From TrEMBL:
Pfam families: MipZ. This is AAA family ATPase. PANTHER family: COBQ_COBB_MIND_PARA NUCLEOTIDE BINDING DOMAIN-CONTAINING PROTEIN, P-LOOP CONTAINING NUCLEOSIDE TRIPHOSPHATE HYDROLASE. It comes from the Bacteria. The lineage of its organism: Bacteria, Pseudomonadati, Pseudomonadota, Alphaproteobacteria, Rhodobacterales. InterPro entries: DNA_Partitioning_ATPase, MipZ, P-loop_NTPase.
Length: 269
């Protein structure tokens, strides 16, 4: 059975699709068979990133690995059983198609609460929640007291993840490994950064997730999207000597992949 990795965050702009593509491509370049599903049926950022990659590989005759993009198949509503949901059936069919031939399935969820996203979270063996390193994004996970910065309770997204965990337990599936990834960390050890870090540590013990470092804000991520390439493909793009920023970004990807601790994955790049 394929190991399912879900990227989820109900707020947009957290680097979710960029993280999804780099995780999927890193796994593919390490020799694993990777399938990709984009559940944002409107924006399709992850799907477009994969399509761009396959286009560049074909145009430049590159011999590099890529995740396979799977679209949600069309289902005849007349074939649904009584009470069966059409979107559930489409997602189940896509996952069933991929899991027989893939080692990993990477699913990118939209930056909003949808039926597809809720179902996908219940399928996650590993859930990655990228967040910008600020209390604006932290509010998605928990409410805090504005004076003491003490956590007063879980927020809407954390409650949705808890529900997904309950569904997995009832189905007899193994517990979900939930990792909150701190993207766009500031270069300086700022006061706000320390406060967010302390709040995440406190919350992680209460609701059960691990914290991992993500990607700093870098122009290169926006430049890579049109070609579908990632930090691991710079030499194929003709970059013979990596600058300090590129080297630091690749190290961030290594650190993230090691922190995910995915089964059967040895991070060697």
């Amino acid at each position: 059975m394929a190991h399912i990795i879900v990227l989820g965050n109900e707020k947009g702009g957290s680097g979710k699709s960029t993280t999804a593509m780099h995780v999927a491509t890193a796994l593919a370049r390490l020799g694993h068979v990777v399938g990709g599903l984009d559940l944002d049926l409107r924006q399709r950022s992850f799907a477009r990133y994969i399509e761009n990659r396959h286009g560049t590989i074909a145009a430049r005759h590159l011999d590099i690995a890529a995740p396979e993009l799977m679209e949600l198949p069309e289902i005849d509503p007349a074939t649904l059983a009584e009470g069966e949901n059409l979107l559930d059936k489409r997602l189940a069919a896509a996952v069933a198609e991929l899991e027989g031939r893939c080692d990993f399935i990477v699913i990118d969820c939209p930056g909003s609460h949808t039926r597809l996203s809720q179902v996908a979270h219940s399928l996650a063996d590993t859930l990655i929640t990228p967040m910008n390193d600020s209390f604006v994004d932290f509010d998605l996970l928990a409410r805090i007291d504005p004076e003491s910065y003490e956590i007063t309770g879980p927020s809407v997204y954390a409650e949705m993840v808890w529900h997904a965990r309950q569904l997995r337990a009832k189905a007899g599936l193994k517990p979900m490994d939930w990792i909150v990834v701190r993207n766009r960390l500031g270069a300086q050890e700022m006061h706000n950064k320390r406060k967010v870090g302390r709040a995440l540590e406190q919350l992680s013990e209460r609701i059960g997730f691990r914290v991992a470092p993500g990607f700093s804000e870098r122009v290169i991520f926006r430049e890579l999207f049109p070609t579908g390439m990632t930090l691991l493909d710079l030499r194929e793009l003709g970059v013979d000597r990596l600058n300090i920023s590129n080297l630091a970004a690749r190290q961030e990807l290594r650190d993230l992949m090691r922190a995910l601790n995915l089964p059967g994955v040895s991070v060697e790049f």
